[in-house]
Design a protein that fits this description.
Rossmann fold, 9 helices, 16% strand, binds adenosine-5'-diphosphate, binds zinc ion
Length: 212
């Protein structure tokens, strides 16, 4: 399965991606995680991206398109993949089509803005592996500690309230038009995000049964 996850920042794409990834045995490719890893390692690309990310703006298309092209060419992507956070603009979607990486479906997880703002304030991420948690909806086994690698959980700088507002504006302006893009090609699936992760998961898995 070759799947795109669409949705506002904080709609729960990453969480659902982890579950789908395990069930279908395909990798999740998160441009956000790749960029943050580059930033942490101090690479040139990471440094270039930092100011955009911290302000809640999108990193330039050519940078993320380059990242995706490289990553999708790796061997583990042969049987499918989940794209979490790419494409985020029409030019990125067009580039993906041009590169010849087919997709079977684009699944949009829909969550209202007010709910997003509430959720983001409780989001915590692992400083090492990038796994994400929530103080209310997705608690780690031990307070403030990653289940997967035992590292401390932190608040992402771009999850602070003012930055979240900007990220939502950017989402509505630049990313939401992708729904129309994939609707036109008959690939759009829509799922209403629920309060409980497992309720959303049930809807997501049901929607994916229709995909080959
Ligand atoms: P979320 O899923 O919470 O929106 P991500 O981790 O996907 O957050 O992305 C964090 C930031 O990384 C974005 O706000 C943006 O600056 C940058 N980024 C990630 N993916 C892309 C993309 N496809 N195009 C442009 N910028 C991106
Ligand atoms: Zn971790």
């Amino acid at each position: 399965m070759k799947l795109i996850l669409l949705g506002a920042p904080g709609a729960g794409k990453g969480t659902q991606a982890e579950i789908i990834s395990e069930k279908y045995n395909i990798p999740t490719i998160s441009t956000g995680n790749i960029i943050r890893a580059a930033l942490k390692n101090g690479t040139e690309m990471g440094l270039k991206a930092k100011a955009y990310i911290d302000a809640g703006n999108l990193v330039p298309d050519d940078v993320v398109i380059g990242i995706i092209k490289e990553r999708l060419s790796e061997k583990d992507c042969e049987n499918g993949y989940i794209l979490d956070g790419f494409p985020r603009t029409i030019p990125q979607a067009e580039a993906l089509d041009r590169m010849g990486f087919a997709i079977d479906a684009a699944l949009s997880i829909e969550v209202a803005d007010e709910e997003i703002v509430k959720r983001m304030s409780g989001r915590r991420v692992c400083g090492k592996c990038g796994a994400s948690y929530h103080t209310e909806y997705k608690k780690p086994e031990r307070d403030g500690i990653c289940n997967l690698c035992g590292e401390d959980l932190i608040i992402r700088k771009d999850d602070e309230p003012d930055t979240v507002k900007n990220r939502l504006a950017v989402f509505h302006d630049q990313t939401e038009p992708l729904k129309e893009y994939y609707k036109t090609s008959g690939k759009l699936l829509i799922v209403e995000g629920q309060d409980k992760v497992e309720d959303t998961t049930r809807l997501v898995l049901t929607a994916l049964e229709k995909v080959k």
